[in-house]
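Running low. Any example?
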Amino acid sequence: MNKQELIEYLLLEMEKYNIHITCDDCFPKNAMVNIKRKLMIYNPTKISAFKIAHELSHVINKDICRGSENDTTNPQEVRANREAVLLLWEIFEANGGSYEYFNVFVNTTNAPFELVESIIKNEYLELHEAITEIFEDEIKVSINKQEMHDYIVDYISYFDVIETVNIYQFLDRYHLSHNFYNMAEIEFKQLLDTV
């Protein structure tokens, strides 16, 4: 989805809230919404996807009393910025985007780089940690001491003489999480009486 398609999509989303949209090349700001009058006006030469998403957040949250455009001390403005980034990121991912294409996201949405980085990086890292935690729990449930024993017996059968064992290499060879280091170390000690 390119810049113009994204802007058009967001304007359609705005219309779903019964907001009348007017475009004016002479409007001094990039966009502004009046919730009471259900009206949005924007300058097509200045508008960005980020700004429309920001205004859409105000509509969704029914923000009537707001500060100035760049008032970072106003909680409604801070929330609108955050929600705009998250909405745009959701659209970006739905269209095949990912964290690897972070710069493409910033360029397409014209969202402030530092703001996007702080929000998306935190969201991405939290999601990654949650997935890792779930995955590790699954692994812990799916492997038991007997399976570890069988993997180790298979592993040592490839060697004629074993002086030392690199447990990390063993875990990598059998595609096991490094969280099983202690379990593997204990099993190696019992089988080889050295490690």
About this structure: The longest strand covers residues 20-23.
